[in-house]
Amino acid sequence: MGSKKLSNNALLRATLAPMVITVSLRQPHQSTPLQKWTFENEPIIRIGRAVDNHVVLHSSVVSRHHVEIRHIASYWQVINFGNNGTYLNGELITTIPVVDGMIVALATSGPQLQINLGDTAQKPRQKTVSSQHPASQENQAKERDTYLQKPKFSSESFL
Fold first, then answer.
1. Which residue, among 142, 121, 150, 141, has the nearest Cα to 56 in the 3D structure?
2. Residue 38: which residues within 8 A CB-CB, separation 6 or more?
3. Distance in angstroms (rounded) separating the CA atoms of residues 34 and 120
4. What is the pLDDT of residues 129-158, one digit of tens each?
5. 3-class SS at 112?
6. Distance between CA 92 and CA 141 in Å, rounded?
């Protein structure tokens, strides 16, 4: 577990974890996720750069098998395997119980993942309207695509 201990209340919430879990790819300071993955009755969720993960993120700071979220007995747990670390509130973690709504970062500058448990994973969130310049929105779309898309190669590009 990280250097800070969870409160008894947070630990109690973690121990009552249902088998439905949603992982959302987030951008800092944005309320709308870039992508969501919902898992039901899946005891281990693997996240990383390799294609054999449940959640595949294409970022150079994400390890091939970076992190796992495991359902153990009656709670979920985040386990770091990444070379660049996994962070909760800026602190490096190795293993920590999942608390509904927590956000972990894969590496200090990598993608942020929000973890929601059970019913809270399905609740619609209030959508915020962005007043950003269109060029800024285009840059956000490019950043999202960096995490989500595989490189595309065609036979023509090698000729």
1. 150
2. 20, 21, 22, 121, 122
3. 18
4. 333 444 444 544 454 445 554 443 333 333
5. strand
6. 28
